[in-house]
Amino acid sequence: MDPINVTADAEEFTCNAYLVPGEVTTLVDAGTMPGVEDVIAEHVEALDRVVVTHQHTDHVAELDAVLDAFDAELYAYAEHPRRDVELVDGSTVEIGDETCEVVYTPGHASDHVSFVGDERLYSGDVVVYNDGAFEDGSFGRTDMAGQSRERLIESLEDLLDHLPEGVSGMYAGHGDVYRPSENEDGVREVIERALERAKRRQPKYPE
Fold first, then answer.
1. For residues 55 and 199, what is the distance between their CA atoms, to the nearest angstrom?
2. Calpha distance 22→58 (Å, rounded)
3. N or C: at which end does the chain have fewer Cβ atoms within 10 angstroms?
4. Domain span at residue 126?
5. What CATH number did the domain enclosing 50 receive?
6. Is there a domain that residue 206 lies in?
7. Is residue 92 part of a domain?
8. What are the two backbone dihedrals, phi and then psi, of residue 139, each rounded to the nearest 5 degrees?
9. How many CB atoms are closer than 10 A to CB 202?
């Protein structure tokens, strides 16, 4: 079953939170939408774990509500009061029915990780398909305190190095899911466009 964006109907600013049913039913990020736990319950009876790409507020505001509702385990790279399992660069984590590699991808956030499977990439905010700044290949902002364009560029390069050829879907923290059709570029080409734009070092959101 394809991942379900359980924050798709949010009325407030939020990340995309993906419910991935399967052998290990998983939520990728929790978002900010009040009642997201009720949306999850409409699709599954149990939630095994929540994995977070990073701990910016738009990705974790409703984390406690989800953990309380399902007694799920929390997997995170950075410390968190409720973390059960530390995510480590180069390790693997089961998401639904897929084994994903944890790839450390800072720049937008110091604790940012992406989850790379044979079929799906959960990219958080390091790379997105569209976000209002760029279409068909964009990247997380790097103009705020603690962020680094140079480190984000390295992260995009690392992500490309770890990306299997068969990846057929990119599930980003914002914007649309990218699942290329037969005549469209693959996920790798989208990331390469994002990398090229990031390397221009121009402000993503000019004043």
1. 25
2. 25
3. C
4. 4-199
5. 3.60.15.10
6. no
7. yes
8. -145, 160
9. 9
Q: What is the pLDDT of residues 129-164, one digit of tens each?
A: 999 899 999 999 999 999 999 999 999 999 999 999
Token representation of residue 38 = 């009720």
Give pLDDT tens digits for 58-115.
Answer: 999 999 999 999 999 999 999 999 999 999 999 999 999 999 999 999 999 999 999 9
Residue from 73, 72, 76, 95 nearest 3 by CA: 95
CA distance 104 to 113: 4
Q: At what angle do helices 36-43 and 63-70 cross, to 10 degrees?
A: 40
Question: CA–CA separation, 151 vs 149, rounded Å?
Answer: 5
Residue 204 lies in a domain: no
**In the chain, alpha helices (H):** 36-43, 57-60, 63-70, 149-162, 187-199
How many residues appear in the chain?
A: 207
